[in-house]
Amino acid sequence: MSITLQPGANTALTSAGSPTRVTLTLGWSPAETSGLEIDASAFLLTASGKVRGDSDMVFYNNPRTPDGAIAITPATSGDRQAFTVEFAKVPAAIEKIALCVTIHEGESRRQSFGALQSAWVRAIDADKGQEIARFDVPIAGRQEVAMIFCELYRRNREWKLRAVGQGFNGGLAPLAGSFGIDVTSPDRASSPPSQLKSPPSPAASPKPVRLEKITLEKRAPISLEKGGQGFGEVVINLNWNQGSSGAGKGFFARLAGSTGIDLDLGCLYKLRNGQAGAVQALGNAFGSLQQPPYIQLLGDDRTGAATEGEFLHINGHHWDALDKVLVYAFIYQGAPNWSATDAVITIRTPDQPTLEVRLDSHRNDQNMCALALLENDRGNIKVTKLIEYFRDHAVMDQAHGFGLRWVAGRKN
């Protein structure tokens, strides 16, 4: 039975027979009409109340710790963001995990959490899917743009959850700084610039954390400029909200809220030499990072094991060999239900802001969605949000001129 917590109250999470993994989901309402862009972050803290290093901050630019102790995972239906904690992997030096939320550009836009009607945190047994505790955060009249919603902390070799609801003056950068994070800018980029230059790379000290994240608008491209060492590895992730009706079924079936659905991430590519092709699970065309096309799909989740979505990797050291890459998602099995997914595509490139593409328009009569186009623009990466829906691969190919011949295929 779930426990309802009041501010300052706590409850045990890891007593005898309790879960080894807990998912903390955050939600608020109204979700879309408030005009607030809210981000969640988690900080792994030592006894001093500080992080050990920048990798102890988990957020949109660093979605998991290197040891896998905590990671951003899909939220359940009705919630907005989530983190899953595996207690056995949390280092002994970590005594507390602070779960925080911030409003993007809240101060400059004169926004605050008081604009919301409600906000909450739920602790869920990640193995059984059962709610352990809930905290309804006191939100009325709050003027802050950053808040600590709750904390996990060690006590007598057990982990407990404390309801906090504490406001913090300043945005994400001051909040992160208070926990000992070295950041590059006062907050995320205030407007999407047409070109973003990589900062110089000092050889002596570690690079500070980049907090920039840009949400792309349709047909408003962003250009990432090539640095002296190239782009490194570009990681494209597709993830979306998890439907509550799918508990116990495959991951993508749960996300779409129905059984039997199999949603896949893939891309069409064209090299500078004119060679074109596709990287996708259909036809087992998983690609390669070390030879053409220098693009690889890492895994195809059909079992429910992958809790962080699907990933395409591009070897940015060979970006000069690529002409363009069209990233798409398609439904291999099941009825289209794009409007229920609340899907998000993130594009992460070393020393560049994270780019975010949201499926903010839907066509539930189509199986294909062209998500984003990456083009080689004089050596730079020009990224354009598309969100275009098609009946199948061939129609999408024709619209974007890759010139491939398509035949029926299947996945093993």
Rg on CA atoms, Å: 21 Å
| CATH architecture type of the largest domain | Sandwich
Strand tally is 26
Q: Percent of residues in helical segments?
A: under 10%
- How much of the sequence is in beta strands? 35-45%
The CATH homologous superfamily of the largest domain is termed: sav2460 like domains
Low-confidence stretches: 186-204, 242-260, 300-306
User: How many structural domains?
Assistant: 2
Mean pLDDT score? 83
Number of helices: 3
The largest β sheet comes out as: 7 strands, mixed
**Name of the level-1 CATH class of the largest domain:** Mainly Beta
Which strand order does the major sheet show? 13-15-26-25-22-17-18
Helix-strand category: mainly beta
Structure explained in plain terms:
The chain is mostly beta strands and 412 residues long. The chain folds into two domains: 3-187, Lipoxygenase-1; 213-400, Sandwich (Lipoxygenase-1), CATH 2.60.60.30. The protein is built from three helices and 26 strands. It has helices spanning 172-178, 251-256, 393-400; strands spanning 3-5, 10-12, 21-29, 38-45, 57-58, 70-73, 81-86, 96-103, 118-125, 131-136, 146-155, 158-168, 195-196, 213-215, 222-224, 233-239, 262-271, 276-279, 287-288, 295-297, 310-315, 322-333, 344-348, 354-358, 368-377, 380-390. The strands form four sheets. A seven-stranded mixed β-sheet has the order 13-15-26-25-22-17-18. Mean pLDDT is 83; it is low at 186-204, 242-260 and 300-306.
